[in-house]
Design goal:
The protein is an alpha/beta fold. It has eleven helices and nine strands. Strands 3-2-1-4-5 form a five-stranded mixed sheet. α5 crosses α6 and α5 runs antiparallel to α7.
Length: 246
């Protein structure tokens, strides 16, 4: 495959790249590309932006948030076929990241961003632990840590206040338990807002206990995956919670 197009479409942003003889020739970036959370009108616009001017005769490989589900995979493939693309491979953004991180060789990718997952590729098979979303998993993720901080602050404020509640009151601008409840249950509050508490908390040593607990949860997620494997494999880290140094 000398020429091909690759799209990495995650839950917070997307990018496309045209490769020729192993070299990246053209790269574009865009917004969210998630078949599970966007209308097809929005997806169509995003694909058009990312693929404009590229030759549809080339193979195209897509790693999409939600793309591992058969129903969404078929819809996306049908849309791209209508645009003229014929040779289409669709997988999830996590599988694409794993294969890219280890150059197609056996290995593990541990991801902790808004959510979390541990995924391995070994001897032609994928093995996953976690990645079940905020209701059933996401242990060790930015969202769960932010949620833990909110719950800790609520408990402190019920007893008159404490270290975590003082941080959040200062940084988020609310006062007291009623203010925390109003912030947490605001109708426009989303998971990303809660995960965004992580860099705020990083600036305060008194919040370290929250990070220790989520680090332990993330380690346990990785250990469960390692237990399912028959041999040790190299590990790469991914996701803003683990890789963002800002």
């Amino acid at each position: 495959m000398k020429e091909f197009v690759c799209i990495d479409g995650g839950g917070t942003g997307s990018r496309s790249a045209f490769f020729e003889n192993g070299l990246r020739k053209v790269e574009r970036t865009g917004g969210v590309l998630n078949p599970l959370s966007q209308s097809w009108e929005s997806l169509s616009k995003r694909f058009t932006e990312l693929l404009s001017g590229l030759c549809a005769n080339m193979p195209i490989v897509l790693g999409l948030a939600g793309g591992i589900r058969q129903r969404e995979r078929e819809k996306v493939a049908g849309f791209l076929a209508d645009m003229g693309w014929k040779r289409i491979v669709i997988t999830s953004d996590v599988h694409l990241a794993l294969m890219g991180a280890h150059q197609g060789e056996s290995g593990i990718l541990l991801i902790a961003g808004t959510g979390s997952m541990a995924l391995a590729f070994d001897r032609g098979e994928f093995i996953r632990r976690g990645g079940l979303g905020s209701l059933l998993g996401d242990e060790g993720s930015g969202y769960v840590l932010g949620l833990r901080a909110l719950k800790e602050a609520a408990s402190e404020l019920e007893e008159g206040g404490g270290e975590v509640s003082e941080i959040l009151e200062k940084e988020l601008g609310f006062t007291g338990l009623s203010g925390l409840v109003s912030w947490a249950y605001h109708p426009e509050r989303i998971k990303d807002h809660i995960a965004a508490l992580v860099p705020i908390l990083l600036a305060y040593p008194q919040a370290e206990k929250l990070f220790y607990k989520e680090a332990q949860e993330l380690a346990e997620l990785l250990f469960r995956l390692l237990h399912a494997l028959e041999r040790p494999l190299p590990i790469c880290l991914g996701g803003g919670f683990l890789t963002n140094t800002d």
